[in-house]
Amino acid sequence: MPVTSTSRENQRHLSAKWTRCGGLHKLVSRLLECDDLQSSLEEVLDAAIALLDADMGNVQLFDPQTRRLRIVAQRGFREDFLEHFRGVGADPKRQSARAPRNRGSRA
Asked: pTM for the full model?
């Protein structure tokens, strides 16, 4: 079966994604041993955005005191969105409220 330019392009694309996955794995491994969590989360976010060819992304952590998800690293979001997200409460109809309650599983 002849190799077409489309299949070569697909192979290059998959190879590039595999390489980025390896880089993301290294970053996550470093995260487990980090002294500076914020810098590590920023690096992981950048790697995830590159891996997914995304324009934006964020990292959210559960704050047990407020029982809310909190954006701790982000790229590409406007301030009005970030301000709105800070005000999202524990409305059980919102995915952002269900995720912490269900320990991240989809509800």
From this structure: 0.59
Three-state secondary structure call for residue 62: strand
pLDDT by residue for the chain (107 residues), tens digit each?
565 778 888 888 888 888 877 877 777 777 777 788 898 889 889 888 988 889 999 998 888 888 888 899 999 999 998 988 876 655 556 665 565 566 555 44
d(CA 45, CA 53): 12
Beta bridge partners of 61: 70
CA torsion, points 13, 16, 20, 21, in degrees to nearest 10?
60
CA atoms within 13 A on the CB side of 20: 17
CB crowding 19-53: b at 16 or more within 10 Å, else e: ebeeebeebeeeeeeeeeeeebbbbbbebbbebee
